Amino acid sequence: MITESSLYQFENGEFTCFDGTLTLPTSYVNDDYCDCFDGSDEPGTSACPNGIFHCGNDGYVSKNIPSSRVNDGICDCCDATDEYATGNCSNTCAVLSAEAKLQAEKLAELMLQGNHLRLQMITAGKQLKMERKERISALEIEKAEAEQLKSEAETVKNTAEASENSALEYYRAIEEAQKAEREEIEKQEARNEAKEAFKHLDSDSDGILKKDELITRNILDKNKDGEVSDEELQFFMDDREEVSEEDFFEVMWPKLKPFYMMQQEATLDDVDNDNNKETEGEEDWDKSGELEVGKEEEEPEADEKPEDFEPPSSKYDEQTQKLIDEANKARANFEAVERSVRDLERELSKLKESVSKDYGVDDEFISLDGQCFTYTDREYTYKLCPFDQVVQMGKSGGSETRLGVWKSWGTPGDYNIMLYEKGQSCWNGPQRSTKVLVSCGLESVVVGASEPNKCEYVLEFKTPAACKMPQQAKDNHDEL
Known about the structure:
The chain is of the alpha+beta class. It contains 6 helices and 14 strands.
């Protein structure tokens, strides 16, 4: 390491400027006149505006300040050498040294206690990692057995379903025939309905519908203005001059049928209203003044019990129903075994991902995986789940906003920064991300949160896992 004092060891009574441009007599150094272009000949005065003034700060930490700060009335050096002309400063290096020593002692004690806890976390972490690896081995065996059961269950299911399908073919054929028959009946009914409508519209019964026949039919009055226009005729007749019965069924009836249906509904409503008017107030009252109940509504027989009614029988014969039940059972068993395999695969994947993560040189951070730590400021509550995610929610509750999912440590081998990325997108902005600053503490706790840039968050996290003694930290650095 090159020290400040080593740069001012003169040879042959001469001093060479640091930029090599001039060689001066040693008497020119600190003579309050700037000779070197780089200001290196005046480290102890403010003569050079671009120079550097060196604070010796004996007993404390030396430092360099710009020469422009010399004799500016502000105490920059604890030994007061920067204000030699004003005399406004006193030497405070001893006080600062004592304070620094006290802080160093406190930090050393914190590191000592924290490191003791860290060693406990390492022991627990190694045990946890070993247990997870053992669990992985056990799950691999369980998975192989479950896959064998799945294969056997699938064979049983396929066999049962094949028998079921063979037995059901007979019933499917019957159902298809019944369906075809129903469709044919419906088709014929629709055809008959259309024939009736055609017959009603065909005034001269010549088998052809013409405009002069239809123009008097209110059913074609789409807009209900009291007359059938040429446009309405063209719409229903599909721009034809006349329509045959076959064309009526194919072209005209699909358009006309909805209007017939509406007309029928309106007619039924009118009939109901008329009937209501006729019967209103005509209820029969018995001599006691009570409404007489219809005699056809008889009380159920006293000896008639629910168990007298047999449930409807199955539409399948006994043997077919048995095959269906066996197939259902085989399907349910296969689904249960298949679900078991998926559960095992999910647990295996999670455990393998866990043991592959970087939990520190000695797995000191592994026990934090699976835990979550919260911090609340004036507006929000932040939740840090190490190696998983960071979320934010309103102080009074509400839905969570993901600020990032675990990505990696800031630098491989450096366990002071955690990076979480690919959080929820900001409004018209990027995806949220979080940087977690990790430092030594006697307990694992989040102590601060901020958003220095839009959608970029910083959490401060203290944990004993980060309490490495100086030599341990140096050894880890040397390993890198």
